[in-house]
Amino acid sequence: MIQRNKVAIHGGTVVMGNKAVVITGNRGAGKSTLTTALRKKGYKFLADDVAATTLIDRPMVQCGFPYQKLCEDAMDALGYDKATCTSFEGDNKVKYIVPALEDFQEEDTPLTAICEIVPSLGVPTEYFKQCVQIAKSVAFYKVKRPREGFTVAEQIRCIEEIVL
User: What is the mean pLDDT of the chain?
Assistant: First the structure.
């Protein structure tokens, strides 16, 4: 995706009011389960696993494939017949490929929100907002140093040149 100037966001995407919402989180957090439940509630489905995002005038999520991957427990909880879906081994679990053809949106959609699924001890919303504001307000630099021959004095000189 880097070669195509797209940012890959790990997560599934649904469309709510013609706005893309990416559901992200760690492996096993329940991203596909949640996007499937939202799809079953009537929202359009845009992508599973990866939200290919571009920024031209505004952030846009590119449509993916009209299929989702669900774990066995999610299949049971959401009322799917496992016998009608193809299964495979993934993340040391049996997963199923669930078609979402009738609920699939085939056009790129403006990205409006990213919702991260975290355990109950996750980062509070206000903390996350502060992190975003800090990131928007300050410059970020990497000072690269070789394993040998790059002294602390040289690192200080580089930082002083950047900051001062």
Answer: 88
How far, in whole angstroms, is CA 22 from its chain's centroid?
Answer: 6
Looking at the DSSP bridge assignments, the partners of residue 88 are 95
pLDDT of residue 125: 80
Strand-strand pairing, 109-117 and 20-25: parallel
Best-predicted range by mean pLDDT (97-101, 141-145, 148-152): 97-101
| CB-CB contact of 19 with 115 (8 Å) | no
